[in-house]
Specification:
The protein has 360 residues and is of the alpha/beta class. The chain is elongated and about 80 Å long. The relative contact order is 0.10.
């Protein structure tokens, strides 16, 4: 390996706020092997990295600081560094890979084929359904779903993978010990137990706005490609798409309604060359390793009495149970049992507020 630093130095660099992705890139471009930075003159480091003399001393010998050395000792067992074989292989290829990552969960997932799924925090019922549908099928095909634990598309993707009894990876924009948003406390704990939590930020780091673009390059950097499901023209998901393209990774987009603001981002990306996704095979055929859907059978149909109720619901729009009953000319009490059976059978997916969309 070219980065012949010690594990402790890598962890110390990762804990040092001024060693940003830009400065990581500069160090890697200038020093080969990277350990030569520790023997470089202070003036050279100051000029190269635009830092002061004290900061240059930290680059040369970060473990001389008692505070930093104690932090390193506390993180050794829960960090993977760029000199470890367990470090995600695709991440080594980007220009500014983190020196170390804190984690909780199954580190071996970083060696499996991974795909990012990101999108709007204020996702529509269509977007949530599309994300869950694709994530479930990708997970069933052996792909590990990676996302950012945000509300909306991220959470739907994580949950769909878990529902498929598959692991998922959440890349955080906070310290490993900070749950954000707080409403995802249960989801975060489940991912730690059945998947992997990953971050390049030191413990205790709050959810600062500046952290998330940095986090997004990690989401795209560890994965084979990124799927965008709903994003406005100013969405952070477009940053992930841009970094994925810059890193030489695939970019996929799920199209939406031309009347929806959240369709602007994916539609523009498709115009610029991203691949339009109509079904999961549009994604799988671009991934290496012969990934494919297990022998899928046509979706079975519910028993005849339930089909009439199922026909009222669509994949595109969430329908309230009151509206479904009105369309059928029946009472809510009359169809509630059928709706419950359809939900338990996997044909309907329940959304907040007694609304439902077709799941298959």
């Amino acid at each position: 390996m070219s980065d012949l630093l010690s594990r402790d130095v890598c962890i110390a660099y990762a804990l040092t706020p001024f060693i940003t992705p830009v400065r990581i890139r500069l160090l890697r471009e200038h020093f080969e092997p990277l350990a030569q930075a520790q023997q470089a003159p202070l003036k050279l480091l100051q000029g190269l990295l635009s830092i002061d003399a004290d900061q240059a001393e930290v680059v040369k010998n970060p473990l001389r600081l008692d505070r930093l050395r104690e932090q390193v000792e506390s993180l050794r067992a829960s960090a993977v560094t760029i000199v470890d074989s367990e470090y995600p292989p695709l991440l080594r290829e980007i220009v500014d890979p983190p020196f170390a990552l804190s984690y909780r969960g199954d580190l071996s997932l970083l060696q499996k084929p991974m795909l990012a799924m990101v999108g709007s925090r204020r996702a529509s019922a269509y977007g949530m359904n599309a994300a869950a549908h694709l994530a479930q099928q990708l997970a069933s095909a052996g792909v590990v779903i990676v996302s950012g634990l945000a509300r909306g598309i991220d959470a739907a993707s994580h949950q769909a993978a878990l529902d498929a009894v598959s692991p998922t990876i959440a890349v955080l924009g906070t310290g490993i010990d900070v749950i954000y948003p707080r409403s995802h406390t249960r989801l975060t704990r489940t991912i730690a137990e059945r998947g992997l939590l990953l971050t390049e930020f030191p413990p205790g780091t709050p959810p600062l706005a500046a952290n998330f673009p940095i986090r997004n390059r990690l989401i795209s950097g560890i994965t084979l490609g990124t799927v965008i499901v709903e994003a406005t023209g100013r969405s952070g998901s477009l940053i992930t798409a841009r970094t994925a393209a810059e890193q030489g990774r695939e970019v996929f987009c799920v199209p939406g309604s031309i009347f929806a603001a959240a369709s602007e981002g994916p539609h523009r990306l498709i115009q610029y060359g991203a691949k339009l996704v109509h079904d999961v095979n549009d994604i799988l055929e671009e991934l290496p390793g012969g990934l494919c859907m297990p022998g899928a059978q046509p979706d079975s149909q519910p028993e005849s009495p339930l089909r009439e109720v199922l026909a009222v619901f669509t994949r595109e729009e969430a329908i309230h149970i009151d509206s479904a009953a009105a369309k059928l000319g029946r009472s809510v009490a009359n169809i509630s049992d059928a709706v419950l059976q359809l939900e338990l059978g996997g044909w309907l997916r329940a959304l907040p507020g007694a609304r439902y969309v077709r799941a298959k």
